[in-house]
What we know:
By secondary structure, this protein is an alpha+beta fold. It is 29% helix and 21% strand. The strands form three sheets. Strands 1, 2, 3, 4, 5 and 6 form a six-stranded antiparallel sheet that branches. A four-stranded antiparallel sheet has the order 10-11-12-13. A three-stranded mixed sheet has the order 7-8-9, with helices on both faces. β1 (3-8) and β2 form a beta hairpin. α1 (68-95) packs across α2. Residues 268-281, 294-302 and 326-351 have low confidence and may be disordered.
Amino acid sequence: MERLAAVRFNNVGKYYYFSTTLDLHKGDLVVVETIRGLEMGELVFDLKEMEEFELETELKPIKRLANRADREVYGINQIKAEKSFKICKEIIAESGLDMRLINCEYTLDASKVIFMYTADERVDFRELLKKLASVFKCRIELRQVGPRDKAKIIGGLGVCGLPLCCSSFLGEFDGVSINMAKNQLLAINIDKISGACGRLLCCLKYEDAAYSELKKKFPKIGTRTTLNGHNVKVIGLNVISDLVKIDEDGNISFITLEEYNHPELLLDGETKKEVRTEDKPKEERPPRRKRPEKAKAEGEKNERPKRRPANKKAHASNRNNHARNTSNTNANNHKPRNNRRKGNRHEERSH
Length: 351
């Protein structure tokens, strides 16, 4: 009787379904035939009955349980893949192609070698295929992968300090959108919410459903309401601590969701815990110029503020220039009454 078997070809790769009549268990190594050729994989789960699943297509059967010879060949192929990776990298550098080689794999029967690479644009590798075929004497497959697949193959550490999810337990990549970060009230900082691959963190989807469910009992941000006769506006939420952030005429404070739904729990319109209250900082304004005060009583005159010169030296020079111009004007306007009196003066000076 045929049963369903889930086989995975990499440690954290996607698993595929096959049919088998063999007595297999979880963790057994099996040999199967795929599109790429003959490969060896690991059984992910115990065998399941076919009746539990409604399959529309016919599944390929498992060839056999992997023996000692298959395991030895698999180890030899891994050593060959490392050498082929270096050779292919040198040929790419000689060809001057804008592509970065990521990984190299051989099928179990070594009839095909698969090179994985990344590139920003489409690459014309027809000449490269001819060179590789002349060196390796087998079928060549060049497969372009994305940045997420690159991180999955190479591996690394995430911002949490643990191995990347894609290289440790994720079999498939789920769709992640920026709306998930907004739903979790995270700061939209692309550098902080991006992973090693440069794309949005896969873990953003882990808690998205929980946040969506919890936020149903919270008011929406921007809601205006009245609490104990005071008009307030909801400006933030803290779903984990069950708090609501409100703005009351510039005073920002946190109240619990229970206090928001039941305002009678508040004391005189203030939160029970003063520790959660935050005073909004006042904006500093430049000091205004004071005007002269009005006279409080009759007879009291307003003194007009005297203007101080910006520069004492400049003020003194202006005053001297004014006096000089005045003396020149007076000298030009003064005329003697008669020439005789002027002549007498000269005579007197001569005597």
